[in-house]
Structure formats: structure tokens, C-alpha cells
Amino acid sequence: MDTLTLALWQCPYAANTAAALARLDATAAQARAQGAALLVCPEMSLTGYQIGAQAVAALAEPADGALAQAVSAIARRHGIAIVYGYPEHNPEGRPFNAAQFISAQGQRVANYRKTHLFGDIDRAQFSPGPQAPAVFEWNGWRLGLLICYDIEFPEPARGLALQGADALLVPTANMINFDDVQRVLLPARALENRVYVAYANACGQETGTTYGGLSTVCGPSAGAHPTAGREAELLLVTLDPAELQRARGAAQWPDRRPDLYPQGRG
């Protein structure tokens, strides 16, 4: 597979979906002009995250709804794949906190529903996703989607790694008091699973909450990794399959004991 240049869009939440789509259109054009093939947006990027159960329910839609169609048009117009967050309609309860991957041709490639809900904020607004994340293929890369709190548990990342993932794409809305996620957990997830972890965080304020930024891509081997600051930023990073190959040559995987630990927890 070839190298993959992706852009992490670190941004504050827009006032409404129309404004969010307009900003996405401009950012997709900018990312493509700078050489990115994939744009990863924050959690619930089209609607806002901490907006309340009533607003989430009112904005929720199917995976092929109006928001998906609008993002598909943006992806086609600029020739760039997009990962975005949105509330997905759930006929059996509260909406799902979802992320969707749209190809540069405007096709819906993968949809994922957040499985680990964070505190009262998530539980008041969403239902937990009923299925574990699955790997999908795109442009020769094997990718997996997770959302924010999911990456703070070892099992989702390990489960995707066991499926052969090369990179984990993580839209997120991590608050400023939880910087240890970016500084400690993400490098550990990348290193222990020998994958890239691309983490696109929000910034700015929403309903009295300050989001911490520090969007980053951690590689499959130890070392420095590119990280954004606290303010709005478009961070471009190139993922190299040669680095994956080198890192996996030194992986601890041959010494795992799956006979003692169930898959995904070893």
C-alpha cells in the first residue's frame, strides 16, 4: 500500500448544522489543496456534542440521511475522503453517537456507533452501540473507527488490531482536564498494537465545557509524534506503511498468551 496523508481538523463546534457544513466544505478544500487524501473531523462534528438530549434527538438521522448526503457532495466536490461525527437515529431508544467514513467518490464506506459512553453527558443523550468496531479496507489500508472514550479502553483497539487494522481513526471531544489521554494512552495504544492512531479533537468552548485540542497521530513505534496546540488547527500527517512493517517486526505479538486471555483482552 502507498503512504496516506490525512488531515486532522481541530475546531470549535459551529452554531448549527448549516454552519458546520459550510465550514466542512471550506476545510475539505483546504485539506485537499495541502495534499491530504482523508479529513478526520471531531466527534459529533456536524451538530455539536454537548447539546442536550432533546436537541440530539431532533437532529438524529439515518446513516444515509441528509447530513450524509451533504458530506458526500463535499467529498466528491473536493476529491477527499471524510470521517465525520453525527447523531444516528435509533428506532429503539436514544440516538447513537456515530461516526461515518465517506470516500472521495461520495460513497458511504463505514459507519460506527460509539460503544463506551462517557459519564452523564453521553448517557443522557445516546444509546451505546451494540456492536464491536470492525475493520474496513480503503485505498489499500485497513482502517477502524473508534469514538473518543472508546480509545481509553484497551479492548476496542486490540480488537481492531486483531482484525488486521493498520490505523485507527478517532473523532473525539476530549475535555481540557484529560490531557493524559493524548500524552499517555494514545501512544500506548499505538505501540502495543503496532498501529497508527489518529485522534481528531475539538477545541474551544461549548455549554461551559472547554475542549482540550492536542489532536495527534501516534505511530506504531516509540518516538515523537505530531500534535496540535489548543486552538483551531488543520494538522497534516503522512502515514507510512514501511514504518508499520518495521514496527511489527519488533512486536510482542508472538509472545501473547491467548490461551490464558480471551481475544481482545490479552
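(the above was protein one; protein two follows)
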Amino acid sequence: MVIWFALFFAISLMLMPLVRTLISQGLPLRSAMAQTLYALASYSIITAAGLGWLWYFLRPFGKRPWQWLRWQGGLGRALRWGVGGYFAALPLVLLSSLASQALLKNQGGGNPLLEIILQSRDYPTFALLYVMVALMAPFFEEILFRGFFFRSVQSYLPLGTAMGLTGVLFAIAHLNLADLLPLTVLGTVLSYIYWRSQNIGAAMILHSIWNSGSFLGLLLLSGGTEAGF
């Protein structure tokens, strides 16, 4: 995980900004689509680096990343636990979000890319961003945080501590102080759902539903603001 975080920060904070600087000299990334494509490229490289590191790390143990994961009960079990986990997580995350807003007094930052894209009203850009947020992110992040990290520390720490630690690292990886507490709660619930279901698909489905709801909520709020609501 230390090496993965090093890769993550090196790619997101050093490599991609350098690439963006070189590209923007000839083609400024001003449009919403250009910025979304840049974000998609960044996340794709991070995903490839992360999965590549897991493959390299697990290879001496005779395992591939997909052999390390658990998928008991198939898709039906994953759907039941994923959907049920969403309704269980919803009040907990909302309460923690309210507490975070009260503590930070609505400070802590947000995602400026989302604001630019939502204000653009560019529907192809919305669709591309949705693929990244609701499909790519749950797939990769659940493999990394639940399938690999949580299962690893669960062998050495009490169950609750392993879940909480996984939730904290999951929140830190999103680089957003305002969402640190609610994402920690969500990450802990995701670990619990994975542990109870023994099905990585359940965590992916819950994560995807959550991201989809958040994305569509922002989209509706953006439309309501333009309409004067």
C-alpha cells in the first residue's frame, strides 16, 4: 500500500500535471470535454499502475489479483448485499457529512472539475465522466482497498480496526478534506459488506450505486440552479 500510494501521488501530482503542462502549450485544456479526457487518462494510468503493482506483488505467492478476491454466491448475492448495503450506508454517511460540515464550517474544498463540467451542460462529457465515476472507480478501488488491503490487514488486526483503517485510507486517497469523515464511514461500511458477503462484487455494486447517486444528484442540482430553483 505504501508503494501504491507513492505511485498514486507521483502520477496524479507529478507525472500528469507535467504532461498537462506540455500538452497545454499547444492545446489549452479549457473545454469540459478536454478536462474530462485528461481526468480519464489520469485515472486510467493510475488504475493500470495499481493493478500492475498488485500483479507484480502477488506473483511470488503464485496468485493473480483475481485469484486473491472472493466471489461467493455469484451475482445474486452481490446484488442483495450491494443494494442492501447502500440503504444501510445512506443514513450513516449523511449524518457524518452533516457533522463534517458543522466541524469544517463548509470549508475543505471540493472538486472544481465537476463544477466546470456540470456548468457546461455537455451531455457527452457527462456520460464519459459517469463511466469513470460509476464504473471504473468502483471496480479498481474495491479491488485495491477491500479485495487486497482489507483482506491483508484483517489477518493481523482486529476486525473493526481493519475496517476502520481501510476506511481512513480510502478517504485519504480521495484528497478532499471536506469528505474525509463521510468517506471514512462509507469505506468502513464497504469493508463490512465485503466481509459479510464474501463477495467483492457486493462492494463494487454498493460503491457504484453510491457514486451514481452522488453524480446524478449533482447533475440535478446543477439543472435546478440554472432554472432558478
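Reviewer note on protein two: The mean pLDDT is 84.
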